[in-house]
Prior knowledge:
Low-confidence stretches of chain A: none
EC number (chains A, B): 2.7.8.28
Keywords (chains A, B): Magnesium, Transferase
Number of helices of chain A: 12
Organism (chains A, B): Planosporangium thailandense
Helix content of chain A: 25-40%
Number of domains of chain A: 2
Radius of gyration of chain A: 20 Å
Oligomer: homodimer
Protein name (chains A, B): 2-phospho-L-lactate transferase
Structural class of chain A: alpha/beta
GO molecular function, one term (chains A, B): LPPG:FO 2-phospho-L-lactate transferase activity
Mean pLDDT of chain A: 94
Strand order of the largest sheet of chain A: 5-2-1-9-10-13-14
Strand content of chain A: 15-25%
Amino acid sequence: MHIVVLAGGIGGAKFLAGVRAVARESGSEVTAVVNVGDDVTLHGLRICPDLDSVMYTLGGGADPERGWGRRGETWTVKEELTAYGAEPTWFGLGDRDLATHLVRTRMLDAGYPLSAVTEALCTRWQPGVRLLPATDDRVETHVVVEDDRSGPQGEAARAGLVAGGSQKAIHFQEWWVRHRAALPAKRFVFVGAEASKPAAGVLEALAAADAVLVAPSNPVVSIAPILAVGGIRDALTAPVVGVSPIIGGAPVRGMADKCLAAVQTECSAAGVGGLYGARSAGGLLDGWLVDTSDADVTVPGVTVRSHDLWMRDEASTAAIVRAALEVAGV
Amino acid sequence: MHIVVLAGGIGGAKFLAGVRAVARESGSEVTAVVNVGDDVTLHGLRICPDLDSVMYTLGGGADPERGWGRRGETWTVKEELTAYGAEPTWFGLGDRDLATHLVRTRMLDAGYPLSAVTEALCTRWQPGVRLLPATDDRVETHVVVEDDRSGPQGEAARAGLVAGGSQKAIHFQEWWVRHRAALPAKRFVFVGAEASKPAAGVLEALAAADAVLVAPSNPVVSIAPILAVGGIRDALTAPVVGVSPIIGGAPVRGMADKCLAAVQTECSAAGVGGLYGARSAGGLLDGWLVDTSDADVTVPGVTVRSHDLWMRDEASTAAIVRAALEVAGV
């Protein structure tokens, strides 16, 4: 059996550990198609937070307490960059993590596509599943927020001297990490998505898939940018089953509520299920797995099943995966 | 008074601390024109060992025991790069040091010349002298060595299948750091020197100089690549006084003996003085300061004076500088 998982970072990584466990039992192949919308270039380094979260977690190198970055991380380079006044200072750039970005940046500069770079990095980490970026093209999530009109430009706009817009777009990382998602998001823009193509191997994996699982990742900024890559939606021919990232009206982790508000979607299993929509109505899902506490949820046109969705450990996560595969009928 | 110092890395940095002390007493200005021949791009980072040695030393950030790199240095990124199998692994890339290279690389990529980048880095370090790279162009010292003809190319050459040369050129850092200068050097090539121009500010500093001091740096791989930059030799109109890097037939530090052998020059104060040569005979020097143990040295056409040349501390180094300035007649 071949399972394809659409995944974001930390939640996706945890879920994939369960998928890997199930695949090992059944001798299945797993391909993770990972969001690149969070990717950013800082200090000249190309940083792919979601790919790295998955790679480190599955490779045993992730920090289990902090939830992101490397185990035993240190922050010497970041402190030094700050001493130089090098911006930005708000991004958590660890020393161990930085080596990954150096290797990646060097390979990208040499002309390798991100999929090949990811494969090269994985020769060290041996994640046990095939990791593919959604696209080898540059697709970056930007967040449209109210312009606070600070600075000279803002002053001029307030004074009516220039046609200052009242909104501005900032990179997702700036919104998420620097502002802790506290600036109300008007909307999300996946810059470059329209012209993008799936990364090498993505369409082949989807064509060979017996089931596509949508990890309990952030639907708005992790899954949507994957689906925004040209050609991926149309290639979803296998049954698609999503696992709800919302349990009892709250995100399992992260700040999905802030993102859902921007797309006028209720922060609930029903809300996210409806946002994804039924395949029969032009949406994504054949099946939707919700937590037992959300067992009464319905999504028109979608088979909804419930299961304990708390990913406490690999065993409980594997049970979730088995339940999702069962909904997929495989 | 305006003093210009031609300098390499560690020896040059120590010497410059003495020059700065003397300049502070006399209210003089100091410009250091620093070798860039050791510069190298590794892991996508532009590394300028001599500029950094001077900057860290004068800025109080150098490791006094190791003699190079940063005080309190750690090596996390290097260990991680090695875990990825990223070559080369032989270069001592410290975490603190790396931040400097990141800032530099980013600015160079943005189009700033190395002189502007150096000035920006120095706003943090406040070295107290003006630091200029000899050139903003890329000039790199390569070392011609015997080809050991290892690998398939070598095999083919030995078998007479391809016209394999018996020599190859490697970057200075590979020869110096990786091979500890143990491969006999046939000659040194300053790649790019012919087409290079002095960095912004160098010619102006030389034109304004009351004296030019040649630091007790490696004559072959630190001073020669500065002089190889187009236009610098011709701009030396002020009196030029060199300070011998050789005391009693041995280099004060480093492996100058290995370099001098490659240019068929005796490792002695007389040998290096002769290598630099008298200005009256088309050479570099008006004066040559040697150690008291070398007081009997003569260099045809050059005023030779002796002084205790051991740079034990800033005071003893300042005394050397005063003696050199006296030879220069200023």
